[in-house]
């Protein structure tokens, strides 16, 4: 499953797992023990979630997962063993929570096993590859509350160059089989890597984020704080920068052998790989052709709505795309590359975030206890990154974090509210933080130990954008409503472009001409299928809501419907539909 949290490993931990046949252990025991073993072999995720305690947790917070084919294959074998053990339990003997958990785990482990057939269709080094994830694993996710946390950060940083060399080796392995990213992807990755190593080591993201977080450790002596910062700077100078340069040199050597062809269709077996990615990311059996047609239909519908609003504003000349680009430019921050505008947009985001929290009291009666903060991406990631959300730590050591890329195209008030609603409140923060906090779920579901189901997560985020519009949050703000519709249009175009690139031989330029900015096109190329999860997921949630409304009539409660969607956490759509049916039945309807 590709929608995964951080992954790391301890090499000295025994690799076997004990069998737990139904006659010797309960299903809850199995969930607990199988998940614990899985997490012991994924220490970065164990670090992010503070899964264990004491010395065991401390040991897991110092290494980073090998970025190797062998590790991925071992993970697949663990998934196979988990499926065998899970099959020994009788679903009829389980309560509802256990049954849903078993169904979900079966789906996730099957997906992990199936992914093993398509490991040669993922690019280890790219502008959004595991090289970027190595940075965010430490600078965003790694907890830093105590002196020991800081010491563990330095220890983990000392493994970054080794992990980067493993990604380099994997890239070489794939290149020998003729599997190369398109030339424009190599160029984007090279540019990003060179930008990453441009500042002096002391100003690198690994060091800067570390120093800022240590300032919050008030009990740490200043001398120790400086000693650890200096160690981190030395590691970046002597290990990290050379590793990034090696990776950049490798990608440069691959440029003459790469083509501009963008989609998986160009690779042997690529159509089968894309079919798998589509299924994994949407949890449906829709074909690329069906998704393409859904996208075209929604593009037409949304553009018609936008045209009407634009005409009300007196904007009548040109295509919808042209008029929206003009509106976006009109709402751009003054001198958008200045520090003053960068500060102002983050202040505006903070205001939107807190206003969204207040407004959410009406349509939601369950809301996260965990706080959410907003912060900009490090500058070296601005060009390639989209707005994103990182989950809070279950132990409260890290809040939910919304990151925004302050590149020129994003320095506008147009659509800004919708981005915040999607990524934070009432979008990903509500869905993911509530899942983390839901003690009624087994821990593997709380933390998404076996991956997150993209169509549920991204579908909820897009649904949250639409819900804000339906709930009157844009009353008196037609430009804001156009921003919401523009993001809806963007997700519809994603269906068309993702399938166009990977199944219909579209070029990079065709995708750009269709209305998708170059960095987004690059994202779809290296992450095939993921862009389809948003609208497919939103349409499914709306379909379930309309089913509940139609069935229950006056008995329908939007709050209770949201509870039915949010309480189970991210699940496949067949499981989610059963949860909505249970809500309908409990409210006096017949699903």
How would you briefly describe this protein structure?
The protein has helices at residues 27-40, 43-49, 54-60, 69-86, 96-115, 130-141, 147-157, 160-176, 183-196, 205-214, 222-254, 270-282, 288-312, 320-330, 339-359, 416-423, 428-437, 443-447, 454-470, 478-503, 508-513, 518-526, 533-552, 558-566, 573-586, and strands at 372-376, 388-390, 400-404. It is an all-alpha fold. Helix 7 (147-157) packs parallel to helix 11 (222-254).
How is the biggest beta sheet arranged? 3 strands, mixed
- Mean pLDDT, to the nearest integer, reads 93
Number of helices: 25
Strand order of the largest sheet: 1-3-2
Overall shape: it is globular
Distance N to C terminus = 31 Å
Give the tally of structural domains.
3
- Portion of residues within helices: 55-70%
Tell me the series of helices and strands, N- to C-terminal. HHHHHHHHHHHHHHHEEEHHHHHHHHHH
Strand content: under 5%
Which structural category fits the helices and strands? mainly alpha
Task: Determine Rg (CA atoms, Å).
Answer: 24 Å
Number of strands: 3
Uncertain regions spanning at least 5 consecutive residues: 1-23
Could you state the oligomeric state of the chains shown?
A: single chain
Question: Can you describe what's shown?
Answer:
60% of the residues lie in helices and 2% in strands. Helix 10 (205-214) packs antiparallel against helix 11, helix 16 (416-423) crosses helix 20 (478-503) and helix 24 (558-566) packs antiparallel against helix 25. The relative contact order is 0.11. Strands 1-3-2 form a three-stranded mixed β-sheet, covered by helices on one side. It has 591 residues and is mostly helical. The chain has 25 helices and three strands. The protein is globular. The protein has three domains: 1-120, no CATH class; 123-260; 272-540, no CATH class.
